[in-house]
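Our preliminary data section would be incomplete without showing what the modeling component actually yields. Below, a chain of 174 amino acids is followed by its predicted structure, encoded as tokens that our downstream tools consume directly.
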Amino acid sequence: MSIDNLKNGLPEYAKDLKLNLGSLARSTELNEQQLWGALLAAAATTRNDTVLSEIADEARGHLSDEAFNAALAASSIMAMNNVSYRAKSWLGDDYAQVRMGLRMNVIGNPGVDQADFELWSTVVSVINGCEHCTLAHETKIREEGLTKEQVWEAIKVAATVQGVAQAIQIDAAL
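Predicted structure:
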């Protein structure tokens, strides 16, 4: 199971996604851990069993157990945070100072380099459409020393993996 299986399983109308997935898997902007953690976090966030299974299988060969778990933790914790922070934003100023009241310990101690976890949290937040979280994590990433090119590469990973999941879902339904 692998990225190649995903590429080979894409329908003809998704040729651009196939090409993008292939080129992103050879990224030079991100180191191996950043890239494969971003791919795994994005795959988990798509909620597509095929995409997650294929990427997770290959990611195990590129990530330590700690990094593998941290990428999945980023997907899980940001799923919660993206919902709650979007809701606070929608509800307006009256909710701005309301205490979140949710545990988020993994963000402070993810078991991997903080910049990598923040990058993966950005990937998840972009897919989930949370502007607040995307901006907050991007700021932290930049403070940690990553470049805008690295951030954008991770966002391209998020966009492409989401598109691949969509194409696979469409193909399965038809």
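The first helix runs from residue 3 to 9. Residues 3-173 form a domain with the AhpD-like fold (CATH 1.20.1290.10). Preliminary results of this kind motivate Aim 1 of the renewal.
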